[in-house]
Amino acid sequence: MNISKPKGTKDIFFDEINVWQYVEENIIKVCKEFNIGEIRTPVFESTALFKRSVGDSTDIVNKEMYTFEDKGFRSITLRPELTAGVVRAYIENGMSSLPSPLKFWYRGNMYRYERMQKGRYREFSQFGVEIIGSDSNLADIESISVAYALFKRIGLSSHIVISLNSIGCTKCRNIFIQALKEYIKPNLNKMCDTCKVRFEKNPMRMIDCKEKGCKDILAKAPVITDYLCEDCRVDFQGVQNMLKALDIPFVLDNTIVRGLDYYNKTVYEITSKDLGLSVGGGGRYDGLVSILGGVQTPAVGFAIGMDRVVILLQQLGLDKQISKKVDLYFAIIDKDAEVISRKITSKLREMGYVVDIDIQRRSFKAQLKYADKIKARYVCIIGKNEIKNNTCIIKNMEDGKQLEVKLEIDEIINRLL
RNA sequence: GUGGGUAUAGUUCAGUUGGUUAGAACGCCAGUUUGUGGCACUGGAGGUCGUGGGUUCGAAUCCCACUAUCUACCCCA
Asked: Is the CB of A270 under 7 A from strand B?
């Protein structure tokens, strides 16, 4: 083998794929319960879509996109996130004329050209929900509820923290930015280089700078929540009250500003204490639909990093509980049993049992050994004697006890517990 | 983009001051008498020593570059 997978990608199989499927199955269940429909959009989109939506000054657009020119000289980008694609689809398919609000969920691979690290890949998978058309904070609540319901369903709700903040509307945010800049200005030369650039281009992003010097200066900086206009303040307070009433735990964190430009009002990040990593985030993006050429439409959404959720499940040992088992393995010791055992096998499979069968004509001993290795709960043995008597032997692999029964579906099923 | 570590069998790793045919454990396959798994014993398969250069009579071992990987930044999911 001299060809290996591209940097930042991975192969998923065996135990790990079980964990992925476990999460995906629960996503489908939860979304169905919330009456959220799935949407699938292209893996690649026009580069302009992300430049306009995610924002020119963001790291994603500046240095992380997989962008290339196709044979028709179009600039194409592998999606680094999916909100932009969903909103594009919303506009392009005239969904504004559909009953509002619309709720979509998605699951797919995203691509960002980044240096690899724990839980960070160049091809990674996100699950997300977008609610388009409601300007009420009940929509914010709904989206947070979905995220929380999923974590609860997969047994992680006590391992995550929802950090909440409001970054206001355009009006009050601009007043805040003025105040922030005035405070920073005298100390600007002490700040890091990226902050100096952000001071001009995207002052909000200075707030979550991790640089020590910047942190010290920002510790006493004005706080966005003090500058919210009456509307935004009431809206944000309403979100908090509602979450409390619904017993969805959260903490307030005014350093959360999100790395994408399209957010406003309530934003949040979901982090794992065990991993020390963000596993998801979201918020309101009332301006995005109009930025992309649609009529002004309010919207909220979030995305969860599936890779990190899977890592979290594995790290907590929850993955072992969801490993899949084989109900019944057919050990065939006689050629005359090959057809009949296969007929029974397919009937059992149609009934939903997980059934495996020898496909190698190996020795009986080897077949039992194999059944043991794939963790078969029972083995059905059919050899010369059994064929002659029209019977089979059902062996319980846990206690080793076995019983001869008639070679009939019902008889076999009765032995499987 | 920046800093540090690592790279030998499917996996986890040994490999002496550079010296014949590169090892172990686990895993895999098979056998230990004819139809019974886990335990034990025996045997077998499996390695361009990450890639390419260089030093040397001789390189898994020393030097350089590249690549991959892990980790901390940056940022995020």
From this structure: yes
